[in-house]
Amino acid sequence: MINIKENEKLSIMNHSCAHLLAQAVKHLYPNALFWVGPVIEEGFYYDIDLGDKTLTVEDLAIIEKEMKKIVKDGKRIVRSELTKEEALKKFKDDPYKIDLISRMDEDDTIISCYTQGDFTDLCRGPHVESVKELKYFKLIKFSGAYWKGDANNKMLQRIYGVCFDKEEDLNIYLKELEEAKERDHRKIGKDLDIFMSHDLVGKGMPLWLPNGAIIRKQLENYIYEKEQKMGYMHVYTPCVGTVDLYKTSGHWDHYKENMFPSMKVDDEEFVLRPMNCPHHMLIYGNKLHSYRDLPIRIGEFASDFRYEASGAVKGLERVRCMCQNDAHLFVRPDQIGEEFKKVVSLILEVYKDFGIKDYKFRLSLRDKEDKEKYFDDDEMWNIAEDKLREVLNELDCDYYEAIGEAAFYGPKLDVEVKPAVGPEVTLSTCQLDFLLPRRFELTYIDSNGEKKVPVVLHRAIFGTFDRFTAFIIEETKGSFPLWLAPTQINIIPVNPELHLDYANQIFEELKNNNIRVDLDERNEKLGYRMRESQTRKIPYSLILGDREQEEGTISYRKHGEQGTTTVTKDEFIQLIQEQIRNRN
Ligand code: TSB
Ligand code: ZN
User: Fold this and answer.
1) For ligand 1, atom 12: residue with the closest CA
2) Cβ(466) – ligand 1 distance below 6 Å
């Protein structure tokens, strides 16, 4: 989909269209006050204070009609300039504009306004010359948005829209938007009974339904097998820790705003953990380690809780309760490169297995000039950053560098992907850490018998099972590969009265072979049941009628294909099992 913000011409048009929207809203709701109306990747929005009024879909259509009327009227858009003092006077009755103007630094700043007909808005510009140019636009949706994104502030109404210079482009865009909505994991997740949420449980706390639980279990098995082979040792640790644990790790000082508040039990004060690193540090520290034992790789499928803004939570993609595919790798400084390479290779392998092609590697490095922002060990930073780069080049990875984006404690690699709807998110991550082992006073004995501090690599290949599942739902549009599919096979007896015994026999046999199978014995037309099998995106539908019953065969149709194939029962089981085993 086109990124409006990156296209200069469309950016200007969309910004002007935001003003057009504001003007129309002002006509319809004379008391409306306006906060900001920026251009975004998907077009523009405007945050508007409509008093007690909450918008409806019908309102959006009425506003759009008014916008069209203003365009027809065809007023020019005229720029004027004011001093800060003049601007404060002009907008004295508008607390939002006063807030914006007051925050402009210098008293001698020149403030620009744009006027079109009866409407003037404070704005830096630039704009199109006349509203006449804004012909092909559409209001897309609306939502509540707290003023300045702060939940303690008033809720404003945010209206989103988009504008193009050609009708055709608008139509293409709207079609793509429709497709993206269809692909949205929240829709598919509901349609295919993968997850739900409930106000009584809370925002950002999805419940995984049986179908979702199957997918998650398969993902766990998949990655667990790989990690086992790579020498990871998996552990189970509690999803709470004391405040002191997080004071020791530094999270209490630096990550508190992302954490749930603490709770007191007897004489202990607990927090729901936002990360698992502290627990794993303690496990490492539980024993003495020699340089020969390293790397030590501690893995866990671990539940974490984070405070995410209520407006930011999204299906399974951004949740407040998540499960990381986490591991902490304790290495000697000379092992950083080799271990990092294994992590990146694993990421590449996993992405290949899942057919994920559209992703970006982002290498976050320190800003060498900024001595304050980064852990003070130049030598370690240099070794680590050079190694990370070297490995990425060696593995022929396409990556971009983000200078000054490293964490305080070390450089990191993130893998970014684009969901169907909304901005990019990080899936996999691998973060080097020079600091945490120090805070927990972790050591190993080196070859000279001296105590040394290990370096830690925090890494999550799936990121979280939650986010990865969201992504895979969108990638596959819910048509999961056989090994992941909640129901792998749907048996449809042509006539349940005549073919049920045979269908049952096949059902039992497949079930005994650990295949996830359903039997649709409803007295509905064959075509109807076949279609439903397609809607449920079940990989294989078996059609069992007279011929199959007599010959002891199976006729199957693969999801999304038209024809059927007939094979013997044993051939079929073998085919299915092989596909599941190979996870292809
Ligand atoms: C990798 N301590 C490290 C860990 O050892 C850590 O927690 N890193 S993280 O903060 O980057 O989180 C790991 C991954 O969790 C991210 O890469 C992202 O894929 C996923 N994630 C983060 N926040 C959320 C969220 N709110 N909902 C779903 N997944 C999330
Ligand atoms: Zn960690």
Assistant:
1) 463
2) yes
| pTM for this predicted structure | 0.88
Identify whether the C-beta of residue 542 lies closer than 8 Å to the C-beta of residue 518: no
Active site residue 280: no
User: What is the rounded CA–CA span in Å between residue 401 and residue 546?
Assistant: 64
The domain 195-476 is placed in CATH, from the list 3.40.1010.20, 3.30.930.10, 1.20.1560.10, 3.40.50.970, at: 3.30.930.10
Its CATH architecture, for the domain 489-582, is 3-Layer(aba) Sandwich (3.40)
Output the pLDDT for position 333: 93
Atom of ligand 1 nearest to the CA of 277: 2
The finding on whether 464 has its CB within 6 A of some atom of ligand 1 is yes
Task: Give strand ranges (E) for 19-105.
Answer: 33-34, 39-40, 43-49, 77-83
Q: What is residue 217's DSSP assignment? A: H
Look at strands 540-544 and 489-493 and give their pairing: parallel
pLDDT at 408 (0 to 100):
83
Q: Establish whether 368 is a catalytic residue.
A: no
CATH architecture classification, 4-182:
2-Layer Sandwich (3.30)
Element (H, E) at 567: strand 565-568
C-alpha of 278 from chain center: 25
- Intrachain domains 4-182 and 195-476 with the same fold: no
Which residues in the chain come in under a pLDDT of 70? 107-108
The response to whether residue 473 sits with its C-beta less than 6 Å from ligand 1 reads no
pLDDT in tens, 48-67: 999 988 899 999 999 999 99
The pLDDT, as a whole number, for residue 107 is 65
Residue whose Cα lies nearest atom 1 of ligand 1: it is 459
User: Alpha-carbon distance 171 to 137, whole Å?
Assistant: 10
Domain ranges of the chain: 4-182, 195-476, 489-582
Is 304 noted as a catalytic residue in this protein?
A: no
Mark whether 141 is an active-site residue.
no
| Structural contact between residues 364 and 412, judged by C-beta atoms closer than 8 angstroms | yes
Mutation choice for ligand 1 from 322, 424, 431, 468, CB with most ligand atoms inside 8 A? 322
